[in-house]
Amino acid sequence: MTTVRTAIVIGGGIAGPVTALALRRAGITATVYEAYPSTANGIGGTLALAPNGVAALRTVGVHQAVTAIATPIDRNALAVGRRRIDLPTLTGVPPLHVVHRAALHRVLHDQASAVGVPYVYGKRLVDVEETGDGVLARFEDGSTATADILVGADGIRSTVRGLIDPAAPGPRFTGLLGFEAVARHEVDAEPGTMTFAFGRRGYYLYWPEPGGGTRWGANLPQQRPMSLVEARAVPAEQWLDTLRASYGDDDPGRELILTSTADDLQVVGSLQIMPPVPHWYRGRMVLVGDAAHAPSNSSGQGASLAIESAVQLARCLRDLPDVQTAFAAYVRLRRTRVEKVAARAARINHAKAPGAVARTLMPLLMPLMVRTVLDPEKTVAHEQRYVIDWDEPVTAEPALR
Fold first, then answer.
1. Strand-by-strand arrangement of the 71-73 sheet
2. Which residues pair with 79 in a beta bridge?
3. Separation of alpha carbons 293 and 277, rounded Å
4. Where are the alpha helices (DSSP H) in 117-197?
5. Please, what are the domains in the chain?
6. Average per-residue pLDDT in the chain?
7. Given CB 3.0 to 4.6 Å as the disulfide criterion, which of 49, 51, 171, 190 pairs with 272?
8. 14 near 304, Cβ under 8 Å?
9. What is the pLDDT of residue 357?
10. How far from 320 is each of 6, 135, 281, 394, CA to CA, in Å?
11. Per the database record, which ranges form the FAD-binding domain (predicted)?
12. Burial track 287-304 (b if 16+ CB lie within 10 A, e otherwise)
């Protein structure tokens, strides 16, 4: 049994509140400190929650509240030009759920607050001092906070990661620029069907939106990265012109862009991933979620892996006698799994911008691809069927998973 009783959680996005809820279930009181002055309000597009992520949410009692605001996706299709083929799906697992990022933030915040997790806003972390038996966090406004441990759930540009290891790598550009909107155009697809389409100049996906229209997301090849601030400084109508030029020859890409408005366009910005992070912890500081592992959005697993890591960290702190042993066990439980997912997503990113020869061959190869590289039993079964056993005790030398 650990001696940890209190925790500072830096970051109020997805990993932060789930970490606080999981720590609370493990008997540890956690307070969430968020740099921004309030919860997210309309910021960001949609994200996917895989079955394993929903299973991890069940551990902390918020799965029903989250799935209630999400759209289930239980069928997938692949389209190249006018050729379309239905993809096989995993059997015996719940559907994928897509949810608006801001709505997910609000639900997780409300669920955590309802059970007594404190939130403190406008607290941008600048430094951490270890005090022997605890940590002292210093914030930009001059205030401080103390606890037994500090958890960095502060995203891909984590401050805590740099405090743990000043030489830690930062996020890496994938070569893709992301957009999202809801078009007025109605696609010919059953509700709950997500279609992955390879256009002549870029990759996009779409699914029928509950209530009407079609939600779509696009990944355009891009030579240089742009910060989110830079990308959103470009007028949305200008981005729509770029998208019309890129997808004007595609069906239904052309109709999706033409029936989307500048007001509805979400500029996601340059897509980033985290290369392997050598050190997930030091002393009484530890990382969870995107701060430690952020695969490309191509994986469909970023949020789910963050949720899993929050739960596994809490289990390790619950069962092991000291902080260092608990953190080491946590890394052993997580590193191999998250790095395998990141490697799979990196391979998908390369396929999102096929050359002319590859685009010509893809329609011919699609039936073979469905039986081989797109077989979910071979590619994602081990990811999506993963369920954490909360009640199983963690040992100091856990098996790799």
1. 46-49, 96-100, 71-73
2. 84, 197
3. 7
4. 159-164
5. 6-74+94-171+274-360+380-384 (3.50.50.60), 173-270 (3.30.9.30)
6. 89
7. 171
8. no
9. 44
10. 15, 19, 16, 7
11. 7-172, 279-343
12. bbbbbbbbbbbbbbbbbb
pLDDT at 385 over 60: yes
What is the H or E stretch that residue 86 is in? strand 83-87
- Number of Cβ atoms within 10 Å of the Cβ of 343: 12
**DSSP, res 209:** P
Nearest to 73 by CA among 197, 252, 203, 196: 196
Peptide bond just before 252 cis, omega within 30 deg: yes
- For 94, counting Cβ atoms within 10 Å of its Cβ (0-12 exposed, 13-18 middle, 19+ buried), the class is middle
CA distance 40 to 254: 32
Which residue shows structure tokens 């404190």?
118
Token look-up 């919860």 returns 39
**Tokens representing residue 391 in the block:** 């009640």
DSSP E strands, 64-213: 71-73, 75-80, 83-87, 96-100, 119-121, 125-130, 135-139, 144-147, 149-152, 172-183, 193-198, 203-208
> Rg of the Cα trace of the chain?
21
Residue 141 three-state SS: coil
Buried b (16+ CB within 10 A) or exposed e, 259-284: bbeeebbbbbbbbbbbeebeebbbbb
Residue count of the chain, please give it.
401
Maximum mean pLDDT: which of 22-31, 191-200, 232-241: 22-31
What pLDDT does residue 309 have?
A: 97
Crossing angle for the helix pair 51-59 and 15-25, nearest 10 degrees? Answer: 40
Dihedral pair phi/psi, residue 148, rounded to 5°? -75, -35
Task: Mention every residue, 6+ apart, whose C-beta is less than 8 A from residue 339.
Answer: 276, 293
Which tokens go with 39? 């919860």
H or E element: which one contains 218?
strand 214-221
What pLDDT, on the 0 to 100 scale, is given for residue 400?
A: 44
Complete DSSP assignment for 266-334: EEEEEEEEPPPPS-SEETTEEE-GGGT----GGGS-HHHHHHHHHHHHHHHHHHSSSHHHHHHHHHHHH
Comparing CA positions, the residue from 176, 181, 178 lying closest to residue 262 is 181
Between CA 33 and CA 96 the distance in angstroms is 30
The letter for the amino acid at 113 is S
Give the integer Cα–Cα distance in Å for 398 and 401. Answer: 9
